[in-house]
UniProtKB/TrEMBL annotation:
Species of the source: Hydrocarboniclastica marina
Keywords: ATP-binding, Nucleotide-binding
Domain ATPase AAA-3: 37-167
Name listed for the protein in its UniProt record: MoxR family ATPase
Family listed: Belongs to the MoxR family.
Amino acid sequence: MELQTTFADLRTRLGRTIIGQQRLVDRLLIALLADGHLLVEGAPGLAKTKAIKALARHIEADFHRVQFTPDLLPADVTGSDIYRPEEGRFEFQPGPLFHNLVLADEINRAPAKVQSALLEAMAERQVSVGLKTYPLDPLFLVMATQNPIEQEGTYPLPEAQLDRFLMHVRIGYPDAEAEREILRLARLEYQEGDPPAGEPITQASVFAARQQVARIYMADAVEDYILDLVQATRAPGAINSQLATWCAFGASPRGTISLDRCARAHAWLNGRDFVSPDDVRAIAHDVLRHRVLLTFEAEAEGVTTDQIIDQLIDGVPVTA
């Protein structure tokens, strides 16, 4: 209960800093609690970088931002062996991935070799350089961003790498009232600087919160609902025949695990000690958006993955 209060307070404090993007704040905290990585898609200037930097200030964690570019090399993110002539040996110099919170900015601008190195770090929590493998910190979260506007000179992320992201979150512009608050906050920060963050949440508290999230009660009916929803992405024709012509591939078992973890984290973050079907529906789009692949017919007709997920949610009942 105490940890739930602590994270509810963190959620409130982040919401005061990241105005108009509560969805991003919530998904970032869910990724932290569910021990996963986050892919965020949105136009420039929507506080994506500010959100993860603010989170790093409020927890016991260090932060590093990597700007992905077409000329980036794997060693630029993993680190490399440096020769020390005075000692006559090579010494490993850790790269940006050896931080707790890593922002991979415009990840789709990096070539395949860099994405492969990042994939190993995300999936295995380790980095391989030469013949040696180096473990990463137990608290390790990657938030990658994509700009949906400018796609020239980008490299689409392979499905295997997309599947490693716990959630794919899309964010939009804030409304007029939220933007007014952003304007006033920006003036205040320009005059007085960033407000003090207060006592940070320790890493031990983060790990303890993860244990509570993992142990939260989930009824068999909710578990069945998760399984039925994922099965429907693989056999959408059972919902209606039109869906079968739009879905090329459904979610993998990793999608099932992600739905379970995110639904638990969503319920816990909202102060409950049980998971409901509403928690599953609340995070279903973000968990399944990058795991349901469209057919050419769907793309030609302008059908989006979100529209398909809407129909799946409407068509899959919760059994008692």
